[in-house]
C-alpha cells in the first residue's frame, strides 16, 4: 500500500513520531495493539495521529496495523537520500501526456466549432437542419412537439452517459484527485508542527502537480466534445424548425401551445425567464432522463477516491 508508506514516511520526518511508530511495530502482537500497550511510552497525541493518518485501524481486540510491510518500508531511507528526512512520496499519477487527444478527438472539436457557427449563420443552420429533418421530420409529423423533445432528450442523455463512461478515464481522474488530497494533507500537518522545510518542499510538489490540472481538464472536456458533436445538430434542427434568434422556423410546421405550471398556456417560442419554452422543456427532460439512465445502467459519473 503505497499510500500507507507515504504517510509513514511523512510522519517519520519527526524523530519523536518515528520512535512512536517503531515502538508500535515492536509491540504489535499478531498485527494488533492496544493503547495500554504503549501508554507511558508515547503521548496520546502521537497515538491519535497514527489513527488519524490510517496507520492504525480498527481491529478485533484493539487497533490493527494497516500494513506492516508498508509501515516498515516507510521507515526505511528513500533511495538516493541519506535517510535524514527525505520527504514524503506522493501518489503516482499517469503522465498528463497520456491524456492527450487523438486525431479523432481533435477532428470532433473542429466539427463542433463548425456546428457552433450554425447558431448565427443561416446557410449552415439550413444545411444541418434540413439534413436532420430527414430523420426527425417524420417523428415530428406523428408526435406533438413536447414528445419529440422528450425523445431527443432521452437520446442525448443516453449517448452522453455512455460517452462519458467510456471516454473519461476514471482511474486517472481518481489518481489526480488522490495526489492533490495527499499533498494538501501533508501540507496541513507540516504547518501544524511548524516544519518550514517540509512546507517549502511540499509547495514545490504543488507547483509540479499543476500539470495534473491540465490532465484533469483534458479528461473532462474530451467526452464533452463528442457529446456536442451529436447534440448540436439536434438543437440546430429545433432552431430551424421552431425558430429562434435569426431562424424564422419552418412556415409549414404548426405547433400547438403548451400549458405549463405557473406560466399557463405559452407558445414554444415564448421566453420563459431568459430562454424560449422549448429549450427550458428540453433541459428539464434531459436532466430527468439522464439521471434515470445513469441509475438504470449503474454508471458512476464521478471518480472514486481513496
Automatic annotation (TrEMBL):
Entry's transmembrane regions: 107-124, 144-163, 223-240, 273-293
User: Residue ranges of region Disordered?
Assistant: 74-101
Q: Which UniProt keywords apply?
A: Membrane, Transmembrane, Transmembrane helix
Domain of life, per lineage = Archaea
Q: Does the keyword Transmembrane apply?
A: yes
Cell compartments where the protein resides: Membrane
This protein's membrane topology, according to the annotation, is: Multi-pass membrane protein
Against InterPro entries, the record matches this protein to: EMC3/TMCO1, MJ0935
Entry annotated with the keyword Transmembrane helix: yes
Q: Which GO terms describe its cellular component?
A: membrane
Read off the Pfam families from this record: EMC3_TMCO1
Q: What is the protein named?
A: DUF106 domain-containing protein
